[in-house]
Amino acid sequence: MAYSTSTRDFVALSDLHPNLARPSVIGVVIGKTDVRSFPDRKNIGSERYTFSFTIRDSPTYFINVNSWGREEYIRSLSESFRVGDCVTIENPLVQSKEVEREEKFNPVTPSCYKLLLSENHSVVKTSSCYEMDTKLLSLLHLPVKDPQDYYSLGDIVANGQSLDGRILNVLAAVMSVGEPKYFVTSDKRKGQRCEVKLYDETEMSFPIVCWDNESIQLAQSWIPRETVIFASDVRINFDKFRNCMTATVISKTIITTNPETAEANALFSFIKDSVQSGALLDKMEEQSKEPINLETVVDVYTVEQLKEKALQSDGKLDPIYGIIYGYISTLDIDDNASKIIRNRCSICRFLVNEVSNTCTFCSDISPGSKSTFASFDILVDVTDHTGTLYSCYLSDCVAEETLGCTVHEFLMLTEDKKTALKWQLLLERSKIYFKVTLSPSWRSGLKVNVLSCKPADPVEASQSLLGKGTGNKRLYHMA
Q1: Which runs of consecutive H residues, i.e. helices, occur in 194-348?
Q2: Helix axis angle, 415-425 relative to 396-403, nearest 10°?
Q3: pLDDT tens-place string over residues 302-311
Q4: What domains, with CATH codes, occur in the chain?
Q5: What is the DSSP string of 22-71?
Q6: Closest by CA position to 67, among listed 30, 130, 117, 32
Q7: What is the arithmetic mean of pLDDT over 224-236?
Q8: Are strands 190-199 and 254-257 parallel, antiparallel or unpaired?
């Protein structure tokens, strides 16, 4: 198949071969890397610059394109188009690719060739997609892998660390897109990072991280709770800090936005039903179920410091994990049990609909008592010598550990024993691990989840509050 315009005929990517004289090709850009530099072996002390991209001109054929040259040329060329643009390439060098070497860091393509661009001989032009054949535009919504060849987010979580380091395909919806974060490395190189939260029918919050500018820009175009992506060849890792599985966009990755496949359409239907029922928004407001490795949480805060940090955040605050040496100052567990005990889904562990007592997220779950379990859902106040954090979440397993009893055991207690348990915990100096996020709808503007609350070692607490504890960075002296 060949495309043509009023001035030139284009060779189909599938018809390319090294002996073809001065070929011209056209295609949509489906993947692109950032500009990188390497020491120039021929000119010691100078650097060569490069970037690569992948173009497609048919449902079954796409090819990688590499460009090397001076910094000015490479940066100018890279900035002239983005993923989703149509480009024409005149006079590229068609070269056989070393499959094992090429596909280790580049997208896997059906072509046995790659294209090389020369500053002196090749020309790349960006064409308006509106002037191109609509068949080219439709290619942007076709995954480059078998649309059935992917892992659900639930499968990844269930397999856990056995998938650490694996390269997989993922089909998921976009829950939220984080703000890009910029930094400078120790060797003075600029970097960036953006985290996107994904979800599907099996898992409601799964992070995928973008480290390159191209994928970050693409992610910024996604609409939360409306966009579905098919991400081919992402790297799966176990995050030791958060104690959860994550995905990372790498140089091999090609992301198809809003793919036109039966599997994606089923996910679109799930999104629509969840949003219309209001269940998805309720889900987002629930306490995060991502487990945290408490051994990695070392920063000690006071209540005053947390509030100051929130005030200085200008409404944009990443979750804060830390420790407070304080005590629970409000704990209403001897009033009405229905206020502190609610039912959760036995599969996803999130709160269920109070009227129907069933989970609205697990599509394969059937109504009945076996589908839910009773769980603590307590609001407590946490106080130290600098102030109080009001309405902190103490729930589920953390609440059971803090109270020293299960929900069933708690319900068997007499009112007197519930009151005795309350006063046993109130005002006891504790080591409280927490997670804080901004929440305008919350009483204090801060949503605080208690991750652990246990009696504090007096020596450890004193040393930490005096600035002598290991790993403590932000401390005030005890009043």
Answers
A1: 213-219, 262-277, 279-285, 303-311
A2: 90
A3: 999 988 887 7
A4: 24-140 (2.40.50.140), 153-283 (2.40.50.140), 294-466 (2.40.50.140)
A5: S-EEEEEEEEE---EEEE-SSSTT-EEEEEEEEEEEETTEEEEEEEEE-H
A6: 117
A7: 94
A8: unpaired
Mapped onto helix, strand or coil, the DSSP state of residue 354 is: coil
Q: Which residue is it, tokens 């609440």?
A: 399
- The region that residue 75 occupies, defined by phi over 0 for left and psi between -120 and 50 for alpha, beta otherwise, is alpha
Euclidean distance between the first and final Cα of the chain, in Å? Answer: 79
- For 263-284, b/e burial (b = at least 16 CB within 10 A) is ebeebbebbeebeeeebbeebb
Phi, psi of 56 (to 5 degrees): -135, 140
pLDDT at 172: 96
The span from the CA of 284 to the CA of 203, in Å, is 12
Q: What is the C-alpha to C-alpha distance for residues 239 and 246, in angstroms, rounded to an integer?
A: 7
Q: Residue 230 in 3-state DSSP? A: strand
At 81, list the tokens. 């188009």
Does pTM top 0.90 for this prediction? Answer: no
Residue 151 to residues 53, 202, 204, 263, 269, Cα–Cα distance (Å): 25, 11, 15, 12, 19
Total length of the chain? 479
Element (H or E) spanning 77, and its range? helix 71-79
- Given the DSSP bridges, would you call strands 206-210 and 244-248 parallel, antiparallel or unpaired? parallel
